């Protein structure tokens, strides 16, 4: 997967050549390299919703490694719409019309996808009312467009893997991602302490600053994760009960090492490499290793649970993640820069641009 | 740990030279290579038990990779008796005298250790009555001497990691060990199906035959674990909900691959190498990875739970594992042959020899 993303970056010029000047949707008819299989289309959306449908006009769409994984077909098959399908998991849309039988949604409401693989890389769509969730307009556009891949994932990671209380410590890798910053924010709001490992990239210093401003207690580079100083920090703060592995690789071993006996290490995201842990960590410390997929969670959650989650995130005043904005027509230009655990974008539709002014 | 065991095998002649002709206990005063740190001793046991103590005379002692790990100090510190300490975790003894305040045990009862690191490599001992559990005399001597490392581990693995029902499939590696054969036997008694991977050693054919006789449904070599034929077998039997990783290494990846969505992979034993799993198995199939240590379980179990477990194993008619018998005086001779996931021995005391005739 990582090598696929690396190949994608190398292929970026080809992607730029393929981009249409005024597409209304990005579709693909088979799995494969995005530069090969994604078509920029100008097809019109179906005109009016039937009884249980809603017509929506997208304002912004998320663009991250999970979207690329879905096109490549390496995401575990979370998005199973028939081919050809519209790409994109995350997005925020405004309801433009509702079918006669639709309850709880009206024209003008903002909505986010209630399932994986809704197909958000398009101007407009007519979808089942069950496939979208109302989202308060107080949620910033960038946060709403990445809600199900960013803040919602962070909320689930902090809520579903053991009972954490104020004062407990959580350690995570991949702090530069939308999930990572939402973990910092949501944990701080609950009085939990966070230790965040961040990749040393060009914008490392500003990422550290941003995460500390969001309430992060300790934000250090992945390189520092294995240092003896780190052991002293954990001794002071208390060993974490929960570790969140957003990027895989060597730092995952440090996450396992930092955990308190009985702790849980959760791997999430579709683009992380394999995980190696010493058997002694499993047997000697009674660790539990789990995986989490937001797509799978959405697939099995009740509507009430999903609505409750969106409401909780809106109440928490979830901040905009650190994503770059790009015009929808230029979406394919940035695909080559998307990388696991960071490098996210929000593609803004023409109407979204107006709303954001 | 594996390399330590390999070094131990190479050092076997040195061990033989160090062995005393008539030791009554094997002790060590610091962690290290068994050939260097274990002393064959002829010290007499304390003479009479105080109020809450019992005097016991050992009949047989288990000798396996877990014992070696404890001497090396790589077992997570399960055996924490002060130095110098007597080696050996597993064993069966006859009670020869009880203190005035002891209830539930009387002279002539058979007992097994109720905690890790009791020190079973000795003729006799005076220990706290809380540190031993009565075991019915119907349990074969070899099974009793390895109960807490073999059959008890198997029982916990099948009982504590998800609700398994008759008809469910369990897959395991390390089928040649005492745990592996007890898993086959106990699972068959509950109507569960087993797929067992066995190392291809010199006695491979007889191991397969023995495990099939014990009720194993599919018993194949580790090499076959990754074959396409294996996938067909799992398709026929139903994907396993539980995988038991007794040996680590590459076959652990096949165990993870075989698991049904939502399944659990449990790593146990003190001598397995690290575990590598694709992140996609954790996120895409919602797998859970756990570790199990019988020593830790014994450390936190209530006496009622531990007694109940021994009774359940006796009721199940737990069979003798495939261990080699060796005279207690020759125990050090066989240490070099002990290997992770198999190669277990039972050292028989002089009194045990009479009982087994």
Automatic annotation (TrEMBL), chains A, B:
The entry's keywords: Fatty acid biosynthesis, Fatty acid metabolism, Lipid biosynthesis, Lipid metabolism, Mitochondrion, NADP, Oxidoreductase, Transit peptide
Catalytic activity: a 2,3-saturated acyl-[ACP] + NADP(+) = a (2E)-enoyl-[ACP] + NADPH + H(+)
Enzyme Commission number: 1.3.1.104
SMART domains noted in UniProt: PKS_ER
Main location group: mitochondrion
Family assignment from sequence similarity: Belongs to the zinc-containing alcohol dehydrogenase family. Quinone oxidoreductase subfamily.
Protein name (Swiss-Prot/TrEMBL): enoyl-[acyl-carrier-protein] reductase
Native organism: Porphyra umbilicalis (Purple laver)
